[in-house]
Amino acid sequence: AALKGGLRFQVSAALKEGHVTPTELCQRCLSLIKSTKFLNAYITVAEETALKQAEESEKRYRRGQPLGVLDGIPIAVKDNFNTAGIETTCASNMLKGYISPYNATVVQKLLDQGAVLLGKTNLDEFAMGSGSTDGVFGPVRNPWSYSRQYKEKSVPKSHSEDEESNWVITGGSSGGSAAAVSSFTCFAALGSDTGGSTRNPAAHCGVVGLKPTYGLISRHGLIPLVNSMDVPGILTRCVDDAAVVLGSLAGHDPKDSTTIQDNFKPFELPNLTDVSKLSIGIPKEYHAPGLSSEILALWSKAADLFKNAGAKVVEVSLPHTRYSIVCYHVLCTAEVASNMARFDGLEYGHRSDMNKSTESMYAATRREGFNDVVRGRILSGNYFLLKQNYENYFIKAQKVRRLIANDFVKVFGSGVDILLTPTTLSDAVPYMEFIKEDNRTRSAQDDILTQAANMAGLPAINVPTGLSERGLPVGLQFIGRSFQEKQLLTVAKWFEKQVKFPMIQLEVKRHDHGAFQHQKSAFFS
Amino acid sequence: QEVTVEVLDRLEHLALVDFRDAEGVERLQKAIQFADQLHEVNTDGVEPMDSVLEDRCLYLREDDVTEGNCTKELLKNAREKVEEYFVAPPGNIPLPKLEERETFLQGS
């Protein structure tokens, strides 16, 4: 019912009419977080503060004065956003024990709307990775690994093996947030997206993942990876919910001078019925090597869906697509080298006991605090920024970036409204298989379809489309014009309605009540 | 084209991060190889792009103090402090040279 369907409007209506109270909702979610602990989606659960926030919300509802649609709604936030009084770790030893003295702007905005912050979700260390497997708190498990849909399609192995070795990854780096939304422990979650980190796990976990236009949402308080590409990402169970969250987050922030100053007006999505005026572009380069035949077929089916509904569907070309990942690799490592320089142990975070000199203390602190992936990117970045390499690598990458951005400008300028592409190359792989390749290789492979949108700063969204042969979610991506989120989400919502993605049938064993199926909410049955 | 030990040493100095082992060095080699693909692209006459918002004016606010007075809060997160100071070990001491420090690179 409302708890599962996750339509914010339904749950909000239920709150407004008193069918359920914010504290009941909060307790429900906290309890579900406990029963799904094995997913490892949460690093920190802020139980006390969440219940307090829920109580405050309840008072407002009783007075008939809720702050808005988000009042009392349980949400989760990726652990690379600063949250006042709550540990923010970025899944790294470097920030273990770091209690933020302030809230990131996006967190503050959600709290100002009355949202209930349940906790901080797990990620790849410092958001570097595409599996949510490389953080110090361990990997996140995809909730679909425990779905009836997946289990039905798995070849039965020996009894002892089953779930323990078969579970699949969430994708990354916002895997914890995607898993949290997918397993119903919250109604919306914040992620971040630099190369696909919100859309990739959204696709693997069967949820909506929105990457807004660069400059629309404030990055103040989001621990930076690549300043020129990072954006906060939004994960929800349906497109309408994403629009609601976007509405509460977007707009100029004086604390982030890279946010645009245009006036942003929150919008409600119309129910599109006539797509005949729409022009959908299918970029041929997104038929990338390694794209599974299943996803190719789904992509093709989606294109036909639009065509049959009267839309104009055209093949287009983004010729520099295949250089996007290389370009990203250089620019990302270069910016990372700079952004990670702040972690020296002096003002916050881990500090080594080494005390001989500042340099040796910094070196030891960073040696102890960062994992291989982070150190590797810092070193590569510094290499590309060496005087002898600066022109050939860093500046060169910046030039290629312009070419990539121009590809999109040309296509959108030719009359195409929205681009339709796959989000990932395949459905989620089992963890045991994923870790056979190193992080950089995996990221290079998995980001290929999502990265270019970050390069060009364009808005993009993953919409869960169907289930693979293995019973796992597959999503498709829509890319829109700069700051045209309303159009992008309107089309995404239309598409979502057509494909009717199935609800996950989560099978969770509860220690106290034995195995049960189909988590039901007593309040709505 | 292999990266010389001098360059590797220089990088460890600049980054204040160590390669740790042969895998770390190999990781760099692979990263460079990967990045070399960029040279296939013809970028004659193309200007480098710093930001997708290059056509817009960056927001500058008035030079008025609007927040602060949070010394206590900020000091909470520091491990070594004295009164209102962050305490650092002595500065101006360069990292020991390659031969003298404990680094994997010494063996290479």
**Mean pLDDT, all residues of chain B:** 90
Q: DSSP helix count of chain B?
A: 3
**pLDDT under 50 segments of chain B (min length 5)?**
none
Q: Using the CA coordinates, give the radius of gyration of chain B.
A: 22 Å
**N-to-C terminal Cα separation of chain B, in Å?**
16 Å
Question: Major sheet of chain A: order of its strands?
Answer: 1-3-2-4-6-5-10-11-9-7-8
Record field, number of beta strands of chain A = 13
Arithmetic mean of pLDDT of chain A:
92
**Biggest sheet of chain B, in brief?**
2 strands, antiparallel
Spell out the helices and strands of chain B N to C. HHHEE
Which outline of chain A best applies?
A: globular
Rg of chain A is: 22 Å
Protein name (chain A): Amidase domain-containing protein
Organism (chain A): Aptenodytes forsteri (Emperor penguin)
InterPro entries (chain A): Amidase, Amidase_dom, AS_sf, GatA
GO molecular function, one term (chain A): ATP binding
Task: Sum up the structure in keywords.
heterodimer; A: 525 residues; alpha/beta; eleven-stranded mixed sheet; two-stranded antiparallel sheet; B: 108 residues; mainly alpha; 3 helices; mitochondrion (chain A)
